[in-house]
Amino acid sequence: MATCSSPLSRNYRVGYGLAQGKSLVQVLEELQSTAEGVSTTNVLIDLAQREKIPVPVSWQVYQV
């Protein structure tokens, strides 16, 4: 829950920045830290596609 709702969370700050219309590159530059959710989403989608596992919610996150 904390990573979803705390402004101290890096993943939260990435989502908030994207919601403000900033690009992912811009958000990550401003963050100056690693937001694990970004790289994890890429790995998850690669794995799901390779194994042919439907992940509709994660796919939408990846599209953002």
Low-confidence stretches: none
How would you characterize the largest beta sheet? none
End-to-end Cα distance: 21 Å
- List the secondary-structure elements in sequence, H or E: HHHHH
Roughly what percent helix? over 70%
Number of structural units classed as domains: 1
Oligomerization state: single chain
Q: What amount of the residues lies in strands? A: under 5%
Mean pLDDT: 91
Shape: elongated
Gyration radius, rounded:
12 Å
Structural class: mainly alpha
Give the strand tally: 0
Number of helices: 5
SSE blueprint:
Blueprint: H1 2-5, H2 10-19, H3 24-31, H4 36-51, H5 56-63
Helix pairs in contact: 2-3, 4-5
Report on this model:
The protein is an all-alpha fold and 64 residues long. It contains 5 helices and no strands. Helix 2 (10-19) crosses helix 3 and helix 4 crosses helix 5. The mean pLDDT is 91.
